[in-house]
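Final report, Chapter 2: Outcomes

The project's central promise was a pipeline that accepts a single protein chain and returns its three-dimensional structure in a standardized token representation, suitable for archiving and comparison. That pipeline is now operational. To close this chapter, we reproduce one record exactly as it appears in the project archive, with the input sequence first and the structure output second.
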Amino acid sequence: MPKLYKGVIVMSKKLRTLILLFLLITTAAFLTTGCGKKEKPKGYTISGVVTNSANNLGIKNVKLAVGEKVVTTDVHGKWSVSGLTGPVTVGVITDNLGWTFDRTSVEVSGAASDLDFTVTFDGIEETIKRVSLDGAATIVVPPGTYNLSGAINIVSRDIHLKSTDPDDPAVVAATIIKDHGIYIYRTPNRSIVEGLTISDEKSSGISVSDRGVATIRKNVIEGCGMHGISITSTIPDQIEIIDNIIRNNSVTETFG
């Protein structure tokens, strides 16, 4: 017990140690509980996947609005958002030419892992035809193998034809144009082909001719019956060929 000596409480060393230990434990408990405040609820999580209806492959770089947040799908087409409270709307932001989504939005108010969206693509040649002569458009090709019945003709239009991520080798490898190549000619300004795997066993992978101007970037062009890239344009100095992989083609020269 503490003793009173000349109006001052005197405690033994053991008692002082016990009191100090109690104060330390109490302070630590107070700090670990957020200074005495209750933790806020963490909210719920929702997720899903965006796929190509033709092959069920996930589609990268599709943007979705989740309430006030924006989320982008990964290389497998997957997305997720955590920390939600109350009802929210999940809506498709991406608006690519030739793409049709099975639904554009969905309402949720609790945890869910099956908020999926499916894309139907009209096809490369069909989408190019929707662009007016002397017009310009970007056409994003979902992952898949496109066995063409005829060549892709980019003529009298400025078309930017690309995969969902030309800088991702996995996406490039999964976006394949087969059986016929790409022909670019009489472009009003410049067409761009990037991030595709192209193989035409009968002819060249990409041909630029007759006043065609093009940038050919980060493609894999292989297994072609002639050149990987054929340049016979009357203005070849305006052709840009950047960071392509050109291999195993019957004619090994880049130009011809």
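Archive annotation: The longest strand covers residues 44-52.
This record, like all others produced under the grant, will remain available to the consortium after the project formally closes.
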